[in-house]
Amino acid sequence: MTAAQLTLVQIDNYGPWTVTPEPRREMDLQTLQSRLFADMAQYIGNRGGYVFFTRFDNMVAVTNGLDRRDHELLQESVGNRYPVTVSLGVGVDEVPIEALETATERVQAAGSAQSSDRSEVLAGEFHGGDAADDVHIAHFDVNDATGKYTDRLNEFDSFINIEQGYASLMKYMREEHGALSFFVGGDNVIAACPDLSHDEYMGAIDHVAADADVQLKVGVGSGATPHEAGFAAKHALEDCRYEGTLVEFA
Amino acid sequence: MTAAQLTLVQIDNYGPWTVTPEPRREMDLQTLQSRLFADMAQYIGNRGGYVFFTRFDNMVAVTNGLDRRDHELLQESVGNRYPVTVSLGVGVDEVPIEALETATERVQAAGSAQSSDRSEVLAGEFHGGDAADDVHIAHFDVNDATGKYTDRLNEFDSFINIEQGYASLMKYMREEHGALSFFVGGDNVIAACPDLSHDEYMGAIDHVAADADVQLKVGVGSGATPHEAGFAAKHALEDCRYEGTLVEFA
Amino acid sequence: MTAAQLTLVQIDNYGPWTVTPEPRREMDLQTLQSRLFADMAQYIGNRGGYVFFTRFDNMVAVTNGLDRRDHELLQESVGNRYPVTVSLGVGVDEVPIEALETATERVQAAGSAQSSDRSEVLAGEFHGGDAADDVHIAHFDVNDATGKYTDRLNEFDSFINIEQGYASLMKYMREEHGALSFFVGGDNVIAACPDLSHDEYMGAIDHVAADADVQLKVGVGSGATPHEAGFAAKHALEDCRYEGTLVEFA
Amino acid sequence: MTAAQLTLVQIDNYGPWTVTPEPRREMDLQTLQSRLFADMAQYIGNRGGYVFFTRFDNMVAVTNGLDRRDHELLQESVGNRYPVTVSLGVGVDEVPIEALETATERVQAAGSAQSSDRSEVLAGEFHGGDAADDVHIAHFDVNDATGKYTDRLNEFDSFINIEQGYASLMKYMREEHGALSFFVGGDNVIAACPDLSHDEYMGAIDHVAADADVQLKVGVGSGATPHEAGFAAKHALEDCRYEGTLVEFA
């Protein structure tokens, strides 16, 4: 049974900081945000977790395998190396959106995202176990995106297609299943899901094909950590490629 | 009159590389992509340009102020420091989408994005001048996103709202005006535009409010470079904030 | 009793790579080297270890607390994100130089540092335990370096003084005690040591004062990991500052 | 005739920051320092300059080709992305040490390196021209360092040999010629020099062989920028390798 541990990473008081004393150079902000995300990806990733850039000032991570001490150290290290600090909220639930709801509430309870009084909150509960099906990861991509889009359209029109497909999928998966889907570059979307069936994944693919005219396929894996589940999902997606199928489970 | 210089940055043969000899750790790929983007942001940004992460394996930059030599050096430096290389296509036009169309075609003409034979293409024309209205940048954000979303909803539901607003805006601006709109984190979208009127920007804001139920406002600036135009746009957006208006020109 | 686990990190075939097909831009090489070191510092550091840049193409780490799996993952992650790979040799001994001797031999046994056939060696034994005095760290700095050098001399002459002091200390500590001393920036030197007495540290300080005319002081700590030992050493060095003493143990 | 433009980069009030409110994790400091240096290397390097890490809290750059605006932007960008700021002093002279002397005095005149009142000083004069022999760069390395040291000794003993050779060379070149020599990793030392003869370089090599028992060779180049001069020097050093000579001019 799924027990996803979700962490909300929120930069403290970031909006006001970006325009104080006057607006900062946009490319410096972009650099800061993407490097902070890269550091998160290394730290969380080499402990078996997954983190997604989401809105960059708010990032969402699946952190099964990381305990309180791991979160404290991440917070300390960011504080030592960046001009901003981060607050962290953690929640655990069978359904990812419920875990994130709890994680977010814990940070919100400590103050506004734009409060100068709130800094380096760390609040939450941590999942003790590591059962082999704690985490379910689905890795979607677009069928022949290179042939249909990248090599034929201008890059922005390729991007619009991918983006509309993503916008459709993220909404459907959240509303129908409480799953969290994240665009991770190229034509790839990775979703933290509850335990879903073949037909439920087919339903999502059909929905996006009808709603946004984008043909997806998906590999699904489970594991004790996001990396294990996601790695199995990648292999399952390779199976789709070779078999010509739309849904494969590891 | 607008003369936007657009550069397509495309990682060569990236898709196959990510799964050879077997799928690579997702968080390493995320780190690689976001750091490559950060390096682009620094290099292009401190020469007055703007770059957007788009799909990460394909990035779009507005590069007025960067000549052929600047592009060559960027390509060489990436090749020296990353396990991947990049191809660059450049185009110039009054309408951003036309410039990008040209830029993309030049890279596509040299081979597929997934061809192992194509590497480090550099093709295109460069804009010689630097007239004060060469570049138009519009900086959108969401009215009171912190109060309405970040401090009230869980982070994924906040993100869905921002994302649906973005998906609506990007499509409208491209189809109506040939403008290129990019989500840049938080509740911010930056668009490279042709010369548009107050009413045309109001039309976009109205469209997104009706289509996605997201209330945007926008500051608009122009300049010889994206940084100049974008910096003016940021100040205009601050004016919106203080005046309570929805569209301001620098 | 000290049981230091030392890891040699050696970039595979780096020398030839830097000049193939022709010499690469020096500042790109500097960027690559220092970012690789920074990644090592984060990875090893947030697991309680210490790494020193040494010659950059060869780095030395004290890795008590990191097991074989941690080393494998570090190697994999570098290979996924850099145009070069690293070999790792590990040794354990009461005396740091002996541990490093073993670590180095294991890498050397697999082939030359400039062999194109050798790649991603991982060889060594790992220290199972974590006794509270496994690691001894000494943190040296120069008495009033800012007043005597930085604020008075040109930067290169300040640097010469610090550097001559370091060259003297590193040689003395290695020859007398088998300790490994590393310059870590500013006026700071951190040494991995066997269990040494107050008089032995005074002997080192006296030697450098006489040999290079540089006045050092030192804080010493011990712990199960380099971070614990080094953090205690930093506090002991603060004690020297407040007490006006030259040697303090945590 | 040489006209070297030297820039001192000094982190403002860094020493106190590293221990406030208590000592910060050493590996976070190492990460911060080496990434700041890497950013300098990219920024200065892709404008044709060279920067050396020196003591990390103080870095020395040869910046022919970078004007006041380039320096201002570097300072702004660091301030936007790091928890520390930098002061910059600039000087121009035929003899590198004289240029650095001037550069350093300008920063010192504005306050102590450990003053909390001094921040983001930018002081100096900039070299207007770009004559083809403005900058002289010498690139030294150790003859067969891999065969003699890296593949035979433990890494620390290899490092001691290289380091003692460097300590000897840096002192000799500064005292005899006002040249600034920097260890850049591996067995490489790069020096910013006045216009020196073949015999003067032979004199330096002989001195180090006698003083530290390390056998160096050197390639020398000149150019309008450090990159041009240094690139020529690298090629000249390759000539030494093929010809078996000890001193080659480009």
TrEMBL record, chains A, B, C, D:
Pfam families linked to this entry: GCH_III (PF05165)
Keywords, sorted A to Z: GTP-binding, Hydrolase, Nucleotide-binding
GO molecular function: GTP binding; GTP cyclohydrolase IIa activity
UniProt KW Coiled coil keyword: no
This enzyme's EC code(s): 3.5.4.29
Catalytic activities: GTP + 3 H2O = 2-amino-5-formylamino-6-(5-phospho-D-ribosylamino)pyrimidin-4(3H)-one + 2 phosphate + 2 H(+)
Gene3D superfamilies per UniProt: 3.30.70.270, Nucleotide cyclase
Entry keyword annotation includes Nucleotide-binding: yes
Family affiliation: Belongs to the archaeal-type GTP cyclohydrolase family.
Function: Catalyzes the formation of 2-amino-5-formylamino-6-ribofuranosylamino-4(3H)-pyrimidinone ribonucleotide monophosphate and inorganic phosphate from GTP. Also has an independent pyrophosphate phosphohydrolase activity.
Annotated protein name in UniProt: GTP cyclohydrolase III
Gene expressing this chain: gch3
